[in-house]
Amino acid sequence: MQIDQSIFKAYDFRGIYPTQLNEEIMERIGRAFVEFLDAKEVLVGWDMRLSSEALKNAFTIGATKQGAKVIQLGMVTTDALYFASGKYNLPGVMITASHNPKDYNGVKFCRAMAAPVSQDTGLLDIKEKVLRNEFVDAPVAGSVEERVNTLEAFSEHCFKFVDKDKIKPLKIAIDTGNGMAGKLLPIVLKSLPCKIEPLYFELDGNFPNHQPSPIEKANNLDLIAKIKELKFDLGLAFDGDGDRVFFFDENGEMLDSSFITAMIAQKLLEKNPGGKVIYTVVVSHAVPDLVRSLGGEALLSRVGHSYIKDLMKTSDAIFAGEHSGHYYFRDNFRADSGVIAALIVMEMLSESEKKMSELIREFQTYYKIEETNSKVENAAEIINKIKEKFRANITQEFDGVTFDFGDWWFNVRSSNTEPLLRLNLEAKDKKVMAKKTVEILRMIRAQVQSLKVKVKSPEFESKIFNRAS
């Protein structure tokens, strides 16, 4: 059969079911994964998507044909799969397409101890095995075991990161978007005194209420309205497979993940003095500034979970945060977890006796725009022109190009999948941020007349920019 090779991504395999990804391909993936790792046992978890059950079965058939024992964990979150991989010291896969629309599905991979598998560390080999399809059945087929209570064990593990008794009766609205966090959170939250307003906890692969992608504002409107209506203390929004979380204050304002990273870093450095914290090029400089001020060491990583996990391993860093809502914890097998991040923020909010908007303000030492997209046809040419103008201020040339001017900085990078340039910029002064954002966007959009730059004067807010999508 002809396989659409666009399903082979940098960190996972993902495509539209059944035209791009189907049972036959997934059976090959099962065989390839086992053959590549020479695995004797493999963990399998899956989400609530309509095709996940069938794809899980196909993966199981392929893996057992190669002689591996398949341990099925049931419907779990991705961070629970990583936890199980660490707990049992076994490789695993998660059948999910994360935040993508309902017609998509995919598979995420990890080695034993939740170690990442990316293009550089095995995905290209697995891809080639899938395409060649030259598998030989094992002399003895593998068996299948069902292992229940993974979510309960993971819930207990999550509470190792906080003092449960310090969490007060907060009022929290939580939107899981009919995704897998809706199965995990009731187990986690039942032992807490918090008042919870659950939105869309019912597992439903049709995603009848909104897409499971909280990074997009349109998908958070119901949550924001509920926070305001009930005058709640905090809002949480999880993506489809439950490994990412986004935070909202008592006013329904979505909080920048950079400043949440700074918050969590402070808490973990209290417990691990002198520890190392990882950040990426598009994370606010508030993070490395804070880490250094507390006596820790700030380490810069490329964007992407495999790079971050590898750096965590070699440096023994205690924590890492990305602007995309991923939070990684050394003591969680260096894997990311939205639930652990949420519990730590809940504990800090309880201890502070402040409103969430007041607490986060302590970490907002820079004025930062939202990541702003511009549709362009000549991304490389535009980046080169910007480099020519600001060559003396280039500090990094991975994950785009980063320029630092002391009191302000910006990063510009191309999208891997769309004709877009992405701009991140922040400054110590709000007016400097406004002025420099206009300047850089005019350079980017000089030949794009349909995209106007609008700025409120004299104050500036990032949301007034037209954002190409």
UniProtKB/TrEMBL annotation:
This is Phosphomannomutase/phosphoglucomutase. Gene3D superfamilies: Alpha-D-Glucose-1,6-Bisphosphate, subunit A, domain 3, Alpha-D-phosphohexomutase, C-terminal domain. GO terms for biological process: carbohydrate metabolic process. Keywords: Isomerase, Magnesium, Metal-binding, Phosphoprotein. SUPFAM superfamilies: Phosphoglucomutase, C-terminal domain, Phosphoglucomutase, first 3 domains. Belongs to the phosphohexose mutase family. Its cofactor is Mg(2+). Residues 371-437 form the Alpha-D-phosphohexomutase C-terminal domain. One of its GO terms (molecular function) is magnesium ion binding. Residues 7-134, 153-252, 259-366 form the Alpha-D-phosphohexomutase alpha/beta/alpha domain. It holds the Pfam family PGM_PMM_II. InterPro entries: A-D-PHexomutase_a/b/a-I, A-D-PHexomutase_a/b/a-I/II/III, A-D-PHexomutase_a/b/a-II, A-D-PHexomutase_a/b/a-III, A-D-PHexomutase_C, A-D-PHexomutase_C_sf, A-D-PHexomutase_CS, Alpha-D-phosphohexomutase_SF.
